[in-house]
Design brief:
Layout: H1 2-21, H2 25-47, H3 50-67, H4 79-97, H5 120-139, H6 142-153, H7 158-165, H8 169-187, H9 191-194, H10 196-199
Helix pairs in contact: 1-2, 2-3, 2-4, 3-4, 4-7, 6-8, 7-8
Length: 201
């Protein structure tokens, strides 16, 4: 069922791109509203810098508009996959340009919908957990971090990640497994501080 929904979403995005290429401004805005935040979040996680990530997201969408008239929806990568690949390459270019350094970005600067129902204490705990996870992700080797983020945060499948990183599915599985073990180790001493022990009761 999930695969059917993913296929349907990919087809809908391709249809929007076709309309955008024909000059439909509403379709272009809808597609940008769908893909833009996803690309921005990916770039922010890779670069750790909101301003740089915004530049990457904008550049990615500009490149998408340039290829729109020639886009072939049958076969090949989905629009989401294509955008992630372009954004990833742009992020890597920027990291190389600045010597591989990334500045940290406050979690509050990453656009993510918040559930208004939990109380203040629960929200603070959720933010602390997310910040701890973001910090721990920055400690992972680049390929492990990319694989873990694409799999468990962006929700991509192993074959999609393999295509993005230009490696085998088995290598993706290995990177994700090693990344998860490393994250568990990095966060192991912080269960009480982050309130994970409370979840067991």
């Amino acid at each position: 069922m999930v695969m059917v929904q993913e296929d349907s979403s990919a087809q809908a995005q391709a249809a929007l791109l076709t309309r955008a290429a024909s000059g439909d401004a509403v379709a272009a805005q809808a597609l940008a509203a769908d893909l833009g935040p996803r690309v921005l979040m990916q770039a922010t996680r890779m670069l750790g810098n909101r301003t740089e990530a915004e530049d990457v997201a904008q550049d990615t969408l500009l490149r998408l508009w340039r290829v729109a008239p020639k886009w072939k929806a049958d076969g090949g990568a989905s629009l989401r996959s294509w955008c992630y690949g372009v954004a990833r390459n742009l992020c890597i270019d920027r990291m190389r340009r600045y010597g591989g350094t990334r500045s940290t970005v406050p979690l509050d600067d990453i656009n993510a919908p918040e559930d208004p129902t939990p109380g203040a204490e629960a929200r603070l705990q959720t933010q602390s957990r997310a910040r701890a996870l973001q910090d721990a992700l920055q400690e992972l080797p680049e390929r492990q971090r990319q694989a873990v983020v694409l799999r468990h945060i962006e929700g991509m499948t192993n074959p999609e990640i393999a295509e993005q990183l230009d490696i085998s599915v088995e290598a993706v599985e290995s990177l994700v497994a090693r990344g998860k073990r490393a994250l568990a180790g990095l966060l192991a001493g912080r269960q009480a501080e982050l309130g994970f022990e409370d979840d067991k009761t």
